UniProtKB/TrEMBL annotation:
GO molecular function terms attached to this record: ATP binding
Organism per entry: Haloferula sargassicola
Claim: Signal is one of the keywords in the record: no
Keywords: ATP-binding, Nucleotide-binding, Transport
Pfam family of the protein (one): ABC_tran
The protein's name in its UniProt record: ABC transporter ATP-binding protein YknY
Domain ABC transporter: 2-225
CDD domains in UniProt: ABC_MJ0796_LolCDE_FtsE
């Protein structure tokens, strides 16, 4: 489902160049649930952005569901992302002036008549249909994260990326949100890649990857705990 080959990404800051991805290869099957762990600054967000078509690598390719993401032009790539990829950002990134329902409607806002029904259904799947008319400021952190999950799954994507989805939540909410996310992905057979600092949560996945200094290694699920 995801075939990433030889990804390189570096950033230039003044005269210095920082190499963040050093030739990363990653192959994920349909429906696989993968946790990506590693220290701060290891390049996890950069890798997720690159896999999701949000950050072009300087070298290498990303093929999702048979389509080479970076071979597509801007509009076609955006349309492909909208159709196939759901992304849950660090810090939710909800629009503060829109209600929960309107936030979930954003990805499909380009004129689809069934957008509202699909958004309501997605809110229902995350258990928040009673909060549809609330603004983000009227929701708890865990509820805001669930709205962000609803927004990511509303288009029934084949691939879901989640960047530290429990980073701002307490232990109980973290476990609930992680169970919800992995459960939804399994239900719809979406491939799921979750970045987390918390190895204790990674036991829910099929695979665990450890990222350090721009490279990834396979670990046994649960191996990083303790
Ligand atoms: N746009 C950018 N310009 C310059 N440097 C960047 C940029 N984005 C990321 N970096 C650098 O790349 C490195 C990796 O960043 P990245 O956010 O991918 O790490 P991370 O593993 O997700 O970290 P964290 O767990 O703290 O979120 C860091 O040293 C960061 O400073």
């Amino acid at each position: 489902m995801i075939e990433a080959t030889n990804l390189h990404r570096s950033y230039r800051i003044g005269p210095k160049s920082i190499e963040v991805l050093h030739g990363v290869d990653l192959h994920l099957k349909k429906g696989e649930c993968v946790f990506l762990c590693g220290p701060s600054g290891a390049g996890k967000t950069t890798l997720l952005y690159t896999l999701a078509g949000l950050e072009r690598p300087q070298q290498g390719s990303v093929v999702i569901a048979g389509t080479d993401l970076y071979a597509l032009g801007g509009r076609r790539q955006a349309a492909f992302r909208n159709r196939h990829i759901g992304y849950i950002f660090q810090n939710y990134l909800l629009l503060p002036e829109l209600t929960a329902l309107e936030n979930v409607m954003v990805p499909g806002a380009i004129g689809r008549a069934d957008t509202r029904e699909a958004a309501l259904e997605a809110l229902k799947r995350v258990g928040l249909e009673q909060r549809a008319d609330h603004l983000p400021s009227e929701l708890s952190g865990g509820e805001q994260q669930r709205v962000a999950i609803a927004r990511a799954i509303v288009g029934r994507p084949s691939v879901l990326f989640a960047d530290e989805p429990t980073g701002n939540l307490d232990t109980r909410n973290s476990e609930e949100v992680m169970a919800l996310l992995t459960g939804l992905a399994r239900e719809s057979e979406s491939t799921l890649v979750v970045v987390t600092h918390n190895p204790a949560l990674s036991g829910r996945g099929d695979r665990t990857l450890w990222m350090c200094d721009g490279s990834i290694e396979e670990r046994r699920p649960g191996e990083l705990v303790g």
